[in-house]
Amino acid sequence: MTFKQKQNAQTCEELIFEFTTKKQPTNPEKIVFTGIGNHDVYNISAPFEDEGELVIAGRVESRDSEHSFVYFFVEKNGEWVPREGSLILELQDPFFTRIAGELVLGGVQIFPHPVNAGQLGWRTVFYKGDSIANLVEFAKGPDGMKDLRLVELKDKRIGVLTRPQGEKGGRGKIGWTTIQSLSDLTLDVIDNAPLLETQFIDEQWGGANEAHLLSNGKIGVLGHIANFDEEGNRHYYPMVFCLEPESGAFSKMELIATRSHFLPGPSKRPDLIDVVFSGGLVRHANGTAILFAGISDADAQKITIVDPFLQYEQ
Known about the structure:
- There is one protein chain.
- This protein is mostly beta strands.
- Helix content is about 5%, strand content about 45%.
- It is globular.
């Protein structure tokens, strides 16, 4: 596996072509959420344990709105229902990790844009605690930045994956830096994180969705790469790559699924039909993994894939 400070950026089209030569995903399955009326649940986290119970965090939203809440769901009789008495957060696109023994949970907060009347701004907000019930907010990312992720490294430092847009990141590129503790997670640190150079062409964009500490101390990154077609439709593809924490060198990107591998389902809008948003990955000892994903901004599914991080541990 070759790691470089700069990789030759590959387009979505090139990555799709490479992916067709590899073992394809199997067993797509719709994740059924009930108890939330006629709202959609999408852009979910992978299941994680909280107080002895498996929980999924999910974005709950009306089909015609961007105003969403994060609910915590537990499984009952094959369906996922809101956990009784659980916290509800006014956020989008939840994610989690564990740092220094604590649960760290985040999501995207929207707010009226300070300059453009009638438009929304957004930022990533972080919470921590020994359980969901005891989560308290401890940090906010820069205005305009989604896909901000944390991971505890082998030496207990914390890796920070960023996703600036605009002058520094164009439509959206991934940055990387490290900090000593959660108290060091400042706007300056996030804004100054160096980009992983030439990972995306300028016309396309991507971000990190989940970071895994691998057995050799490297970081396996689950993310997405996206583009527009000529009609303005969005196309989002789940991808992975590997990162060396010390040098910031990284491997080539690889796709792990496309929308066609999942079951048919609803879409929030016609331009979002071909959207797979990587939610989380659960690795298994038999060399497979389960990808949990938001589908077309209106649905949640899971699918079985070859564990994409095993190659980086060998």
